[in-house]
């Protein structure tokens, strides 16, 4: 009988393991345009995925105090580093201690990977908070940077912007890092260029310019005016003092990249002095990735880069390529200049976006940057003074005490062509150089190899090595060029487990083996695993290595105890059925990430009913929150709603007082449409102001909203067609000759308001109401409005092969923003799409 039961259990267990072989919702290659975030996230994290053992070093973004040639190694390490996160965090011991009292809810393979990376980021975040409380500012900054680095790795997963855990943790880490930056006198050597910019923007008005002697020689002969004023002097003082190490490193790296930039800017007709903008933008690090998820020397967001021909996927990212990204930046800057006919405004738009600069011009009534500065966001106000300061110093370093700084050798290379997935170590041997040198010349390569399925990939090799490379490469057998390991699927294995075992991404295995997201693995199936030459030749144990997701001992064990914030009292709350971490965070006025830190709740674990949570609340509100804890679910939700209404009322009162930007924290259940209605603005404006390309938002997200006096919001991007609107947008239609007006029927789209429609057609809100017999400003999606627009006709354009929004806008004489607004599009257009154009 016992034998029969054992046999039955063994069969059931085998069935269970077989069921685990199915693969659902795996990581897919993504090169879709227009996806951004909102990076603001991340310091010099230049890689999107996992490298094999050939590039195991993890850079930490350290800024050397001496710009000598040893900085080459640091930069190469930063460029070559990858998260190795799935392998590092899982196999090397960076996985986290998991609370075994919680249910293991790790679902699909991607969800497992994301949860592991998020938890690793949270552990670094905890370490940063603890180091900060212990007064160790250097360690705290380094841990914050590490946390951001792991979050940047997660950001490459498809549709990750809709993952509430990722968004909430990212927001919390950045918020607390910014608070840390504001609290310290100066940054440590491991801080990124993005932390530097944040610190400078916060402190620039407090800088004492009497500490250093600033030369006042006038620089002439430039197209961009390089004026000297108090704001510029404060920035110069900073880089001559506290920011000296950063600027020395930038000068060193300028020797490497500026010859390439200078040539491209000359070809594109952009002033030479504009290339110095790359210094404060990225610190001249091709793999730099900002908190806002912009990438490369010129910090392109994915969507903007796509408009200028920069492509990418899990294998390469052309935003990191010093040549391609510089040409794209030159073209983008030239387009911005044609928009504003002023280099200061063009450069400001490069930082803040066209919409913000247009609004500032309208609000101030001037095109003078120095006069409209106060209408710009804080980071943009100092953007031009910082640029001028850096440019003056870089053009004449000897005047500012940097005359003895050594510069790196200029990049020189030959182009060769290779096909398919070839290991960089093999290519380096053929070119008789090092892997580090190959990475330096080819920074767009994210992985350890050239992209597969590309028949002619252009690769850079050191100058003068093209012939020897071709000769040596021809001698390499095909099986040595294509470094794949064969793996036979064993019982119970999953694609994710196999990927972790070999230190690659599931999406790589899928692409090489032509697997679809729902392809099942079969016992005995042979998979080709892309791997580096070193890793492929290693002895691989034939037995499957089951991934263990629980009770792992973490190297962060000293940080996995409950985090106890200062100035708060402890309160205990027992979770009821149906309640989530988000609910509890809302009720007790904290963040979900705070609850995880206070209770050491790992990502990927479901919050179970009956669990008692520790909640730290402000001491003065202890009795209030005790009362909240005793309420029913409905009562707690009602109390939150009442608090939100009070906050909204206070916000409205403040907004009506004068014109200014406000920050709205998204509450649970809110949508962009609801927020737009609450503030009487357009959804399209909210998207433009916050660089959103989709309508998805999440609880806790912070949105910027512009409020004009009298509760009238201005359009984010007044269209250029049919005519440029006058500064008084609300009354633009008053002067029109009604007799010559054409009647158009406009169907209201989701997110549109009377204000946005009036701005689109350059008419007044009052006229729209009169023509359509409206007694209020409320309109309904799908409703047709009569518009008497002077000399405006709707035409249609069918997208052809090779078209982009930018080429269409130039051909038709309208702006990209208008095309996107008229057609409610935010991502890529495809051949065959029908676009409506008003002109």
What descriptive keywords fit this protein?
single chain; 839 residues; mainly alpha; two-stranded antiparallel sheet; two-stranded antiparallel ribbon; 34 helices; 14 strands; 9% strand
In short:
This protein is mainly α. The protein contains 34 helices and 14 strands. α2 packs across α19 (435-441).
- Helical amount: 40-55%
Calculate the terminal CA-CA distance, rounded to whole Å.
85 Å
- The proportion of strand residues reads 5-15%
Counting helices, strands and paired strands, the structural category is: mainly alpha
Silhouette: globular
**Any idea what the radius of gyration is?**
28 Å
Number of helices: 34
Spatial strand arrangement across the major sheet: 1-7
Low-confidence stretches: 13-106, 533-560, 646-659, 708-741
Describe the sheet with the most strands.
2 strands, antiparallel
Beta strand count:
14
Mean pLDDT: 74
Overview of the molecule:
This protein is mostly helical and 839 residues long. It is built from 34 helices and 14 strands. The strands form seven sheets. The protein has a two-stranded antiparallel sheet with strand order 1-7. Helix 4 runs antiparallel to helix 5 and helix 5 packs antiparallel against helix 6. The longest helix has 25 residues. The radius of gyration is 28 Å and the shape is globular. It starts with a helix and ends with a strand. 47% of the residues are buried. About 20% of the residues have low confidence.
